[in-house]
Each structure stands twice: as structure tokens, then as C-alpha cells.
């Protein structure tokens, strides 16, 4: 096809959506010796052209992703459109025989996530999702300690995500802060990362009771939310998420068990203490950047790790680190939080097959 001169053996990627998060995918592809970016699509042609000029000058640009998906030299598609369009693009890519790596959240409705998973599974295509906090050194060390039983029976698992997003941020794109396309606010857009993180560490959630509302910003969805959860293992937890406080705070996880406590933020551990143990706090490499008030100011290593694993999952015919089934858990919990806030009742989470 025109515009693509792939090197042998490289996995050929296309990106759909050339907005704020797309450069993270483009850089991860460019930095991976086994990947190549061959096509970019955005409804604004100048956006696609700009992304190509910066990261893949030989990539062909499009404004119609369905036309782009007709190419037979595209192996996988990175979905980086606004959240409410994730499912439509992913399903179209699967129907065209392409593997799918989707930016968070997987989608904003339970039914669409089911369709995405089924579209890929039924065709033996891989569906991965970007939740980069799972692959931070701190999160992986905490998970290992929990799995090894260092904390004993888990008692509490909390995540606090207190961010600042200005009025200008919400005005910067018509879909931001909308229910139909953003799917929610401080939780669905920003807080989904920490919610995925705490559920991965603590295990699945049984039920939730929550409050959420736009307390400060003039948007359709919440800029502030607080939820109390009961995990299936019997532990309790608190989830806080906001984009309405100034200045932004470091996101923080707290895991407490009968035999120990682990507390860590974006820059490492502040507590790592187990009963009858003098084990020191692990030293972890600080994040390259950590301005949680700027949506563009995040390190790129998580995207690289997950894209590299995705490539290997395709070649080894195995599941990627974060499957569609895993990726939907955070979204299903957020939807339950919204339902609880609307109804004033505790909401039980239903298992999804």
C-alpha cells in the first residue's frame, strides 16, 4: 500500500485518534525495534499530519478510519480517540482482522466493552488496554508482597487521587466532561488508573456505596467522588477521586493487612512494614515526571512496556498483560459508583463473563 514500506518482521501499527495521548503510543512504537507506525487517522487532517511528522514521517494519514482499516499491511491498531468512541473503533478494527491496543478506559459502557471483547476473542485477535500504573515498579513490588502473603489477611485497600484540572482544560475539547463521550469525570477519565491499580492489588469488588458530583466545575459529570467498597475477600476500602482541588496531590495507595502495611505514591514507598520483619523500604526509581496537574506530563515507560508485551502476546499467541476482561473491571466499578451516587444505595457488582 502507498505510504508503507515495512521492514521485515516488524509489527505494523496504525493509530486512530491524534489527540493528547497519541504521542505516547507513537513514541512507544518508534522506540520499539519490533514495531513500526505505518498509518495515522484523525478527523482533523492536520492533527494526523502533525503526529506523523513528529514520529513517523513515512506513515500515511487518513481522516476515515474505516478506509484505513481496509489496508492489509496493518497488523494492530492503537485506539486513542475520546473514550466514548473506543468501542466503535476497536470493534471495526477486529472486524478488519487487526489486533487492538486500546487506551484507557476500555470503553464507557458495559455493553460496548462486552462487544469489544467478543469481537476480538471470536477472531482469535488480541485485545490489550493501557493502564500504565500496573507496571510501575512500586505497584509490581506491592503486588508481589501481597501475593507472597507478607500482609496476611487483607483488611483495607484505599486509593486517593486528588488532581487539579482547570476550567480551560474542560473547554479545550468539546467532549471533555460530557457523559456521552467522556463517560464520566474525575473517575472515568483520570481516576480509572488508580481504580484499576487498587482492584488489581486487592482483588475484585463485591459492592460499593458512593457520592459523586460536579462540586466546582461546570460540567455534566463529577469533578469529585468518594466511595466505600467491600472487596470479595472481605476487606474494605476507600476510593477518592477529584479534579477540583488545588494544587494536585500525589496519587497514593494504602494497603493494610493483619500482618503489615504498604503505602506508596507515584514516587515510591512511604511505608513498607511487616510483622516480625526488619525488611527495609524498597528503593525504586523515581518517575521521570510527576506533575499530576498536567494531563500530558506523564512518563512514557508504561506505554512502552505494555506495547512491547502486546507485541509478544501476539507473536506468542498468549494474552497480553492487561486483557479486555481485566481492563473492564475498573470501568464496571466506576459505573457502579455512579449508580450508587444516583440512587443513594449500595450497589452490588455483577460478574462479567
UniProtKB/TrEMBL annotation:
Annotated ranges, domain GFO/IDH/MocA-like oxidoreductase: 141-263
Stretches assigned to the Gfo/Idh/MocA-like oxidoreductase N-terminal domain: 11-127
GO terms assigned for molecular function: nucleotide binding
Top-rank taxon: Bacteria
PANTHER family: D-GLUCOSIDE 3-DEHYDROGENASE, UDP-N-ACETYL-2-AMINO-2-DEOXY-D-GLUCURONATE OXIDASE
The protein, known as: Gfo/Idh/MocA family oxidoreductase
Organism encoding this protein: Paenibacillus cremeus
Amino acid at each position: 500500500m502507498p505510504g508503507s514500506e515495512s521492514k521485515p518482521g516488524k509489527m505494523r501499527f496504525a493509530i486512530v485518534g491524534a489527540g493528547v495521548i497519541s504521542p505516547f503510543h507513537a513514541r512507544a512504537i518508534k522506540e520499539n525495534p519490533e514495531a513500526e507506525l505505518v498509518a495515522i487517522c484523525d478527523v482533523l487532517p492536520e492533527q494526523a499530519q502533525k503526529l506523523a511528522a513528529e514520529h513517523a514521517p513515512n506513515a500515511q494519514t487518513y481522516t476515515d478510519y474505516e478506509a484505513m482499516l481496509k489496508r492489509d499491511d496493518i497488523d494492530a491498531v492503537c485506539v486513542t480517540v475520546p473514550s466514548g468512541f473506543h468501542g466503535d473503533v476497536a470493534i471495526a478494527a477486529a472486524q478488519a482482522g487487526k489486533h487492538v491496543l486500546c487506551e484507557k478506559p476500555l470503553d464507557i459502557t458495559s455493553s460496548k466493552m462486552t462487544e469489544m471483547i467478543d469481537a476480538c476473542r471470536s477472531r482469535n485477535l488480541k485485545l490489550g488496554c493501557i493502564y500504565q500504573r500496573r507496571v510501575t515498579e512500586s505497584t509490581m513490588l506491592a503486588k508481589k508482597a501481597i501475593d507472597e502473603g507478607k500482609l496476611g489477611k487483607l483488611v483495607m485497600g484505599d486509593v486517593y487521587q486528588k488532581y487539579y484540572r482547570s476550567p480551560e482544560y474542560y473547554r479545550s475539547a468539546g467532549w471533555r466532561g460530557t457523559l456521552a463521550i467522556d463517560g464520566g469525570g474525575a473517575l472515568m477519565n483520570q481516576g480509572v488508573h488508580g481504580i484499576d491499580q487498587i482492584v488489581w492489588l486487592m482483588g475484585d469488588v463485591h459492592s460499593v456505596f458512593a457520592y459523586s458530583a460536579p462540586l466546582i466545575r461546570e460540567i455534566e459529570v463529577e469533578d469529585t467522588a468518594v466511595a466505600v467498597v467491600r472487596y470479595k475477600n472481605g476487606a474494605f476500602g476507600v476510593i477518592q477521586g477529584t479534579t477540583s482541588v488545588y494544587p494536585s496531590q500525589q496519587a497514593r495507595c494504602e494497603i493494610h493487612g493483619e500482618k503489615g502495611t504498604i503505602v506508596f505514591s507515584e514516587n515510591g514507598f512511604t511505608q513498607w512494614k511487616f510483622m516480625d520483619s526488619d525488611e527495609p523500604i524498597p528503593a525504586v526509581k523515581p518517575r521521570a515526571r510527576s506533575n499530576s496537574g498536567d494531563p500530558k506530563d506523564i512518563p512514557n515507560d508504561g506505554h512502552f512496556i505494555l506495547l512491547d508485551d502486546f507485541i509478544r502476546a501476539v507473536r506468542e499467541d498468549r494474552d497480553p498483560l492487561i486483557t479486555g476482561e481485566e481492563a473492564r473491571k475498573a470501568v464496571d466499578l466506576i459505573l457502579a459508583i455512579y449508580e450508587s451516587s444516583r440512587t443513594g444505595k449500595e450497589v452490588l457488582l455483577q460478574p462479567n463473563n
